[in-house]
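sanity check this record:
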Amino acid sequence: MVSYTFFALAIASCLAPALAAKKATIFSQEPCTGESAKIKPNNECTVVPETLKGKVTAVKVPEDVVCNFYK
């Protein structure tokens, strides 16, 4: 379970090996349903889309992708 307050103003940063094209996905409902957005693994800070701000409750991260989430 992912804390609602943790993602209230979340910013995501993901990093993956150069050849991996997999993306992390954030969701507005548990368990990984509802509105979603893909986060590119580019080691840059990616602001959560306006439509998901304050709504992110679940995250699906591919095995070889590392994501850091910031409030």
Observations:
- The mean pLDDT is 78.
